[in-house]
Amino acid sequence: xxxxxxxxxxxxxxxxxxxxxxxxxxxxxxxxxxxxxxxxxxxxxxxxxxxxxxxxxxxxxxxxxxxxxxxxxxxxxxxxxxxxxxxxxxxxxxxxxxxxxxxxxxxxxxxxxxxxxxxxxxxxxxxxxxxxxxxxxxxxxxxxxxxx
Length: 148
What we know:
Layout: E1 5-7, H1 11-22, E2 36-42, E3 49-55, E4 57-59, E5 62-66, H2 79-86, E6 89-94, E7 97-105, H3 108-121, H4 124-131, E8 138-143
């Protein structure tokens, strides 16, 4: 595994992430009208660290992500989501707070509850859902205590 970090191929996402990191979220936390974080996953085939900015919600101490991708109607799940399926531990930055998380996809009643939470926070997901060929995954991130 390499320590190099690769940003999104989308220049607007790369710009957002770099502004967010440079200002500890002061510039970028509310990008797109809702709260954002920076997620760094491990590439499932390459082992390269991959960084992106994502909308997030809160469910108690947990963070909630919607794996809709940035292009409505796209049938392929986002790279960050597929990376988390292979390696569920990742790094997150929320404002100046940087920490390790473990991700898992939600199901059943938990999925429905968190999907409604995210729809209320970011109504754009309604549009994404209308164009999607299948239910859009909802992911929970739980903080992992660092080993000393």
